[in-house]
Amino acid sequence: MGAGGGSCVLQPVRHGTAADSVAAALFAAICDGTLPPGAPLRLQHLADELRVSMMPVREAVRRLAAMELVDLQPNRGAWVRELSVDDMTTTYEARLLLEPVAVRAGAERFAEADTARARAALERRAAGIAAGELMATRNAHEEFHFALYEACRNPWFVRSILPPWRNAERYRIGVPAGPERGREHEQLLAAMVAHDGARAEQVLIKHINGELEMARTKLAAS
Asked: Is residue 12, in this structure, part of any structural domain at all?
């Protein structure tokens, strides 16, 4: 049964802890539009689809609510948050405050292992685009950016980046991953490898603002 009582739309959970896997499955469904804005999250239906008990589903929904991806109201249920211009704007404002600081700090500490991790993620992203695999591309894109952010070696700061980053994914649905985005990734990685924090910050700000403009255009047309 589907989240609204229809046909199955989610893949059964097979790997990792149950709550982690359920949260990942629901997040993927939100990102690819399987669970669109406003969709109710009927916990028993989700548990049946994912073939888990209710407990990890409840925990996963709480996690998504804490990241502002889901609205959760006691005695009323849960549903995917609606998209809005105000939410998109404040989400990207938060990203522009946090992520450039992370790359500037991370550039000073960027090591060979960070380079290898980021390069491998870019290769997986390119393969995902070529194969038309949306979630593989999305996952690789996130892995690339967080390879850069985590180089700042401040886990508290990195954790503060994750909620607006994940919420921005909802606005990126359907935004094309064109060649200019790939060039900016290469420029960003080159700046990090060169330990040029000011350049990395400059490229990232341009990158985020470009994404925001595309997301704004897409939202206005929807």
From this structure: no
Residue tagged 């609606």 (tokens): 82
- DSSP-assigned states of every residue in 39-55: -B--HHHHHHHHT--HH
> Is residue 46 within 8 Å of residue 29, measured between CB atoms?
no
Indicate the range of 47-56, 135-144, 174-183 predicted with least confidence.
174-183
Q: So what's the pLDDT on residue 2?
A: 43
Between these two residues, 206 and 13, which has the higher pLDDT value? 206
First to last CA, the chain: 28
- Structural domain range at position 167: 85-221
Number of domains in the chain: 2
pLDDT at 208 over 70: yes
Q: What is the CATH number of the domain that holds 51?
A: 1.10.10.10
Q: What percentage of the chain carries pLDDT values higher than 70? A: 93
| Judgement on whether residues 135 and 176 belong to the same structural domain of the protein | yes
Per-residue b or e along 20-46, where b marks 16 or more CB atoms closer than 10 Å to that residue's CB: ebbbbbbbbbbbbeebeeebebbbebb
Distance CA 150, CA 5 (A): 41
Q: Domain check: are 75 and 91 in the same one?
A: no
Q: Do 111 and 158 sit in the same domain of this protein?
A: yes
At residue 2, φ and ψ (nearest 5 deg) are -85, 175
pLDDT at 7: 44
For residues 13-39, give the mean pLDDT: 85
Length of the chain in terms of residues written: 222
Given a cut of 60, whether residue 162 has pLDDT beyond it is: yes
Residue from 137, 64, 150, 159 nearest 110 by CA = 150
